[in-house]
User: Fold these one by one.
Assistant:
Number 1:
Amino acid sequence: MNKILLLGKYGQLGWELHRALAPLGDIVAVDYPEINLLELDSLVSLIREMRPGIIVNATAYTAVDQAEIEPEVAKAINSIAPGVLAELAKENKSVLIHYSTDYVFDGSKGSPYFESDTPKPLGIYGSSKLAGEKAIKDVNPAHLTLRTSWVYSLRRDSFVTKVLSWAQAQSELRIVDDQVSNPTWCRPLAGATALLLAKSGEYPAGWINERRGLYHLAGDGYASRLEWAKMILDFDPQHEQQVVASIEAAKTSDYPTPADRPLFSALNCDKFSDTFSIRLPKWQEALEMAMASG
Ligand SMILES: NC(=O)c1ccc[n+]([C@@H]2O[C@H](COP(=O)([O-])OP(=O)(O)OC[C@H]3O[C@@H](n4cnc5c(N)ncnc54)[C@H](OP(=O)(O)O)[C@@H]3O)[C@@H](O)[C@H]2O)c1
């Protein structure tokens, strides 16, 4: 039985990973404050003691605007900790599964990004995640770094839960139509991670090692935030409680934020599907399922 260590079990993705990975082995799942990626000693001891065959890192500093205010914290969690995890994975011959973001790109390409495209983050969050990718690549254990995009859940604050609550409070919504990417429900993302680990068999390190590296993995297809919001309202099971009467297009420049966002950051996920024969569902289908399951 594989020993699996899941970091970040209360996050959007981590919560779903806990359920999805449980059938694959003996799972130990932790999160802040049990472990604190700003103080790595306890994590180092945990890994040296447990000697997990698989480490899945769903922790991250994901507050995109706040990262501009406390860059050192973002870098410690998103850049330094992944490098330490990579060292520990190498030392223990463990597999490391890590997640990164579409915000490593500047959004100027105009068509979905490939893994081979040159990243150019616009803010601290993106640059700290890119440094985390590089730290893992430099150590190069048996690893997969899965870049994903616009992750949502219905249990924690996300774009989906925000749109649902705005729709019950405001008669007119203005949503940007110039930010475009792949909406990704965290449940199929966790499911795809579990499925690929299931495919890796009893000794995942060798199998993953042959396929190690960077992959894009996000909801199939892409949309603007406006298109996404309209579909959220259509699928809302509490539709009758909506007070919203109109939903209008706005521009990103209408809402200045501390961190710039890439405008077109959709990810091309063909490398992942060609390698693992797994593709996430169409974003609209996943959204319908997410809304139905609450
Ligand atoms: N959310 C998105 O739209 C998005 C888009 C692209 C890529 N991604 C990537 O996808 C992955 C999963 O994202 P997510 O949305 O599931 O993130 P999330 O919901 O923000 O969860 C991150 C988890 O990390 C924990 N954490 C934060 N600081 C920590 C620390 N110092 N020590 C230990 N744990 C700490 C958080 O705990 P607290 O809640 O207590 O802080 C939380 O449980 C991340 O790698 C993220 O960069 C996310």
Number 2:
Amino acid sequence: MRGRELRGELDAFLAETELDLVAFRRDLHMHPELAFAEYRTTQRIAERLTAAGLSPQVLPRGTGLICDVGSGDGPTVALRADIDALPLQDEKDVPYRSTVAGACHACGHDVHTTVLLGTSLFLAQQAVAGLLPGRVRLIFQPAEELPGGALEVMAHGGISGVDRIFGLHCDPRVDVGQLGLRAGPITSACDRLVVRVSGPGGHTARPHLTADLVFALAKILTELPAALSRRVDPRSSLSLVWGRVEAGTAANAIPDDGVAEGTVRCLDEEAWHAAPDLIKSLLESVASAYGIEATMDYTRGVPPVVNDEVSVEMLGEAAERVLGAGAVVPTQQSLGGEDFAWYLESIPGAFARLGTRSPDGVTYDIHQGTFDVDEKAIAMGVRVMAATALTALCEVGPLDSTVTSALA
Ligand SMILES: [Zn+2]
Ligand SMILES: [Zn+2]
């Protein structure tokens, strides 16, 4: 049985390569690179793929790459990892701590990259042995955090001819050895909002002669999210949260301008489409009540990642086969944004949550300087991605009888 054989082949492969993969991850972790600056990371990946006999194609900007394994005939399944780090200080005390001030792999993309590298090396071996029933497109995507890297990959034909795409993300709330799955939306839309306000300033002794701009800005900060929650279906969970506010320089002077920045997150695609106009009209009504001018810059971010049901089944089937029964756990839709969503607007696929918490260990959070993973998750990720690619290749497109019998 190919299922049992596959598990044994993965065990043998990982017995030889797991330590090397952990070392690869630690090297990336020590040398994090921000969005669209992942030159060293891209070179490291390219070197390893080339050494395995593959032909990586670096994207024109020099960050991120695409590489095919297997023959052109038959179905094509894509596996995607994001490779960029975050502009955060690494706060861990570990030997593989970031050596770059203000940059840290705090979203686990070093793990995703390493998982896809391990998967690539395994699939390259399978292809040589004639066991790959189609083609696997490896996508090492730059700049997920910007976001924008997915669009860069797509602009260069990254998913043309691809039948189905899979990706995963570290989940520090799930134990290592488990995989969180959900059909339908699994992440949320995330946009950016910048509000600029202006009005005549003056002495704090005479607010009535000014627009009392700080007071008015404070009203915008509290009124806008409150009014939104009354104007939108609560099931869409549209939420505006401020992250930065700035106005004034002295305690006794009313400034004549100010700025507030925040994010707008949303579970539902319909509410997401309506959000900019609604926020603009609410902003104008609050601003006019206090006699100030307000303008907004609304930057569209990513739509929600909407997992295709059939692809989720493939992931689940593959994970149970190589991680064991009970490895698949349900997961909830998060309010985080993820640019994998853009691939899924064009082709079917699914995004999974890879457990990275040590059983009974600390529960970290992503986007924190303390974030770290149980590195056993790397081998788990390789098992899942490799098995998913093989499962999907056998189920996508016209089935070859030799392949079907091989997987039976
Ligand atoms: Zn992130
Ligand atoms: Zn991430």
